[in-house]
Specification:
With 325 residues, the protein is mostly helical. It is built from 13 helices and two strands; from the N terminus they run ααααααββααααααα.
């Protein structure tokens, strides 16, 4: 057992990240919080619309966008790669809708067809131009959140804001939150009933494509730090956890942010203890928080249901006894 689980050092795991290691682990934790917040806020609406797998599709389809962006510009500059991946994400959204609406193929099948095909195209491009496309496969799959602090710092009016990746993710998270606040009614109505939205003068189609475009921006922005696989979990876990604790959308959105903060901080500590990927550890902590909510939710938890079923059986037994007497 000692060989499987590293020894626990409280000083190294809980104190060092916020003292000697603050300049590196502080930025990684902040990046994790920003990614989980942006993904969680968007993901909440995907869950309401039963479209959680669209995030999976976009996260996989950015691979050909990255490869094409590099081949066209012959540069690994952040903005070149970002625009290439963003273009691929938007194309993915359009293709899913076209396949779904212009054929008898259901949406889940359209998602599977689109993301698997585009991901395969990306693999082929990298295989054909391996000598020209310098992409780290581990970065593509798992991200490099632990090294975001080494990114080029952004300076505005003589003030250093922080590493470029963190500043960019912070801007995306802020814009996402502002757009949700500004178009809260439109998103709410169109997510539950598109017909009602049209009757109220809300163009549900425009809202849908706007949401998908913002999803593409969020996924592509998060891709660099958490990779294609882990971004899926960050899209689903915060909103799914919050929806177990409340049925009011404003509360769910607030709990999503709390989930993002707790999973980011505890994930950093877990990664230090186990000496593993920080992004993966954040997702594991998010899954643990989901499990706790699943078990102990006051309205939908397994424990609450068990107590309710036990009480119901007791009442039935008492009623049968009274009838027998």
């Amino acid at each position: 057992m000692n060989g499987l689980i590293p020894p626990f050092d409280f000083q190294q795991v809980f104190v060092m990240p916020w003292t000697a290691g603050l300049s590196s682990y502080g930025w990684s934790t902040l990046m994790g919080f920003l990614v989980a917040t942006a993904c969680g806020l968007i993901g909440t609406y995907l869950i309401l619309r039963r479209m959680a797998l669209v995030g999976d599709a976009i996260s996989h389809s950015v691979l050909p966008g990255l490869a094409i962006g590099f081949l066209v510009a012959n540069s690994r500059g952040s903005w070149v790669m970002f625009l290439g991946a963003l273009g691929a994400g938007i194309v993915t959204t359009i293709l899913i809708e076209l396949i779904h609406k212009k054929s008898r193929v259901k949406q889940d099948a359209a998602i599977g067809i689109t993301f698997s095909s585009l991901f395969a195209i990306g693999v082929i491009l990298i295989s054909l131009y391996a000598s020209k496309v310098d992409l780290d496969q581990e970065c593509v799959l798992y991200g490099e959140i632990g090294t975001v602090w080494t990114d080029v710092p952004v300076t505005v009016l003589g003030v250093t804001l922080g590493p470029a990746a963190v500043v960019r993710m912070g801007a995306v998270t802020l814009v996402t939150a502002l757009l949700i606040a500004l178009f809260y009614k439109e998103l709410l109505v169109s997510s539950f009933d598109a017909g009602l939205a049209f009757s109220l003068g809300i163009n549900a189609t425009v809202v849908h494509y706007s949401l998908m475009s913002m999803l593409s921006v969020v996924v592509v922005s998060a891709f660099e730090s958490v990779g294609a696989i882990l971004v899926i979990a960050m899209l689903i876990l915060p909103g799914a956890t919050a929806s177990l604790l409340s049925q009011r959308l404003p509360v769910i959105l607030g709990l999503t942010v709390v989930h993002a903060a707790v999973s980011a901080v505890l994930g950093t500590h877990l990664a230090l203890w186990l000496n593993c990927s920080i992004a993966a550890a954040m997702v594991v902590m998010g899954a643990i928080l989901f499990t706790l909510a699943w078990v102990f939710s006051p309205s939908q938890g397994l424990l609450r249901r068990w107590i309710w079923l036990r009480a119901e059986k007791t009442e039935a037994a008492v009623a049968q006894t009274e009838e027998a007497l």
